[in-house]
Backbone:
């Protein structure tokens, strides 16, 4: 019986809706709120509440432990009540909605409904939190609470699908109280600045190009050629000098104590890895002190 009634009323309702929207589209358009704004307002509200809770937590941490921690549900209740009072009661919009220039239809929220809204959004969560916090030993209550919470999740999901289809009343409370959002600054769609995105893309492309080309540049050879170019005096001709290795000898390349001393033919000593690494990177590697050049190198033998 009930179902049939619903089926009967639904088409007529839709027609009525369409009828009321079609002739004065102007009015509908000014009140239109995009779905994304409505969802964002909920997200913002959650963020604001969490932010304030975190602040209160930080303050409570300074106090001696156990002084106020057992009053957690009450603290949250007071915070939520204050938020509700300064947003919904006075402005008919939550803070998240105010940030996005949305508000509830004022005429849809008479004082009785306002009280109901307070009950559903503030008192009920407090009762739930209180029961979860205090009645931990009452397994039956906990089980019931769990069940109610699961049902709530399910109802929320159903309501969300309904919202996606209709574009109104994103939260369960809105749906229960039959209150709609309306836009405060006309039918402004969200404008997304694509110029930033384009700039970001250009930068990303440029960085990718750099990442691709830089490994091809032989930076060691380039450095050597540049150094030779800038050097005015000619490199001194190499005389047959003996390699000297003492306890204080430092590597000509890394200037650290030499590890596995090797030399190219001049009197300068290199670590094996410094020499090998440089010769692998740049086939024309020159001694960076005397510019002696050789493609081979030998171990320094201490006589
Ligand atoms: Zn070295
Ligand atoms: Zn040298």
Residues:
């Amino acid at each position: 019986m009930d179902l049939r009634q619903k089926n009967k009323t639904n088409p007529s309702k839709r027609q009525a809706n369409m009828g009321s929207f079609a002739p004065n589209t102007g009015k509908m358009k000014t009140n239109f709120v995009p779905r994304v704004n409505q969802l964002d307002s909920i997200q913002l509200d959650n963020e604001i509440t969490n932010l304030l809770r975190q602040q209160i937590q930080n303050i409570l941490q300074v106090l001696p432990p156990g002084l106020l921690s057992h009053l957690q549900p009450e603290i949250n209740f007071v915070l939520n009540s204050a938020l509700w009072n300064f947003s919904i009661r006075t402005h008919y919009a939550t803070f998240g909605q105010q940030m996005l220039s949305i508000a509830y239809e004022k005429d849809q929220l008479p004082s009785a409904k306002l009280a109901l809204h307070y009950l559903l959004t503030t008192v009920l969560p407090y009762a739930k939190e209180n029961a979860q916090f205090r009645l931990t030993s009452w397994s039956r209550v906990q089980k019931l609470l769990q069940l109610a919470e699961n049902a709530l999740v399910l109802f929320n999901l159903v309501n969300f699908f309904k919202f996606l289809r209709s574009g109104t009343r994103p939260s369960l409370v809105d749906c229960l109280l039959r209150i709609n959002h309306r836009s405060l600054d006309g039918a402004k769609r969200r404008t997304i600045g694509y110029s930033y995105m384009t700039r970001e893309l250009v930068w990303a492309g440029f960085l990718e190009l750099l990442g691709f080309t830089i490994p091809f540049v032989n930076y060691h050879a380039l450095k050597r050629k540049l150094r030779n170019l800038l050097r005015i005096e000619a490199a001194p001709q190499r005389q047959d000098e003996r390699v000297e290795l003492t306890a204080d000898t430092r590597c000509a390349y890394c200037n650290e104590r030499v590890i596995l001393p090797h030399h190219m033919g001049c009197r300068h000593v290199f670590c094996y890895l410094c020499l090998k690494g440089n010769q692998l990177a740049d086939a024309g590697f020159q001694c960076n002190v005397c510019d002696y050049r050789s493609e081979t190198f030998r171990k320094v033998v201490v006589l």
